[in-house]
Prior knowledge:
- This protein has helices at 11-22, 66-69, 105-116, 118-142, 148-155, 164-173, 176-183, 187-197, 210-214, 232-244, 286-295, 300-309, 335-338, 349-360, 407-425, 429-432, 441-448, 501-520; strands at residues 2-7, 27-31, 42-44, 50-52, 79-81, 86-88, 99-101, 225-227, 248-251, 255-260, 265-269, 274-282, 317-324, 342-345, 369-373, 388-395, 433-439, 485-487.
- It is of the alpha/beta class and 521 residues long.
- The protein folds into 3 domains: 2-45 and 52-56 and 230-311 and 458-520, FAD/NAD(P)-binding domain; 81-100 and 313-453, Guanine Nucleotide Dissociation Inhibitor, domain 2, CATH 3.30.519; 104-222, no CATH class.
- Strands 1, 2, 9, 10, 11, 12 and 18 form a 7-stranded mixed sheet that branches. The chain has a 7-stranded mixed sheet with strand order 7-6-14-15-16-13-17, sandwiched between helices.
- β1 (2-7), α1 (11-22) and β2 (27-31) form a beta-alpha-beta unit.
- The longest helix has 25 residues, at 118-142.
- It starts with a strand and ends with a helix.
- The mean pLDDT is 95.
Amino acid sequence: MIDAAVIGSGHNAMVAACYLARAGWSVEVLERDTVLGGAVSTVERFPGHRVDRGSSAHIMIRHTGIIEDLELARFGLRYIDCDPWGFAPAPPGSGAAPIVFHRDLDKTCESIRAACGHADADSYRRFVTEWGPRSARVMRSFTVPPTGFRLLKSFWGLDLPDGGAGELSRQFLTTGDALLDRTFRSERLKAALAWFGAQSGPPMSEPGTAPMVGFAALLHTLPPGRAVGGSGALTDALVARFESDGGSLRAGDPAVEIRHTADHWTVHTADGRTVKARKVVAGCHLRTTLDLLERGGFDGPTLDDWRRRTRVGPGIGMVVRIASSDLPRYSGADTADSATGLQLLVHDRRHLRRAHGSAMAGDLPTRPAVLAMSFSALDPSIAPAGQHQLSLWSQWHPYELADGRQWNAIAERAADDIVAEVEAVAPGFADSVVARHIQTPADLESELGLIGGNVMHLEMSLDQMFMWRPLPELSGHRVPGATGLYLTGASTHPGGGVSGASGRNAARMMLADQRFRRWRR
């Protein structure tokens, strides 16, 4: 019997496995796919191209200390700073300057001054000064289990605005749009920051989305990072760390049932294996975990209640991976400013609102909102000589289409629309496309286990965050009535994105529970 079986090899599951193995536990990771890492993985889609299957830019994990704590640099992980980290092209034919978000605040304000005027440049400096410390506290709250006391402690001592704690809490709970309208004048600047904030999924009209916009302020402290060799380099380093501490991995053999007996758990796999473990860490989607429990005889009505009360949502978006002969050439911009970070291809928030409204009705957006990333400009190792590689992420695209349409019938058309958005601001880009790979919401579900095509597992709305994620009774990484079963992954606090915080929180809780039991004995 082993100490812990970890179901899934997503980055949170692997972070948890690493901490447990480092503490001397015997740990086995069970992965359904033949590729490790879930959405943090990289494969060869086109000859000579190492293409990400999910995430591409790593933002949050660089602010958690996990990379340093696990000494992942010693196991081959290296990041290149995305600097500039953001770029918003000028509207076609306007003759205006682009907005370039450098790590350096002064250079960013100079760009905003040239594009949007003195008032907004000064306002952006105040915005960073105000929201930088707040976003740092949000990140601190992500690194602890979401109890009321720990959340309060994470924000304790933060400078209060006029109006005190009541005004501070109001500003955190307001909409991203309200924050932007209160702070800036230029719609171009508002649209760029709204599109950055919307990467978590919800539109900026939802309550509680102001901190998603405010997180941009923290990128002037440490910008997004591009893992050399692709997003999967993080998984590779975690696996190497895990195995160095004696952990074992089993790929291509999914768990099909988890069952609890008097003093241990039994995990049955598709290949007929039986793994007995004192503890289980479920790093897969919450809905997948509930299915495994149901097959293992867990209380059916309870599981049904948890399914009904959690929202996956209608889907977030789709991505087109492209091999090209050149980088996008945006009018009036040098590729040194545009190619290294997040290319925010919106000029007006009405663009975002229309795309979201279409998705809610089950339709494709008339004009998709596109985030372009061309990380071969930073890391040439991911593309062959003379070529580049781009990821075009687009929101919002529904998982379930209206009128009975199927994604396999309209995927090419949707991809054409996404490429056309880049072409509109970077003329000639469409002709540079050598090959492309399309990942619709249905593809994201079938390949990566992202149910409903939601890359965040569950909607990142206010009522499904912090001590409510995924549900109040499940928010402590434990499952009531299933002693020894722990939850991690994007279904749990702090949610989606590459942070690793959920994995470390779950592992710390397991180790603390073990120490407490020994003390009681």
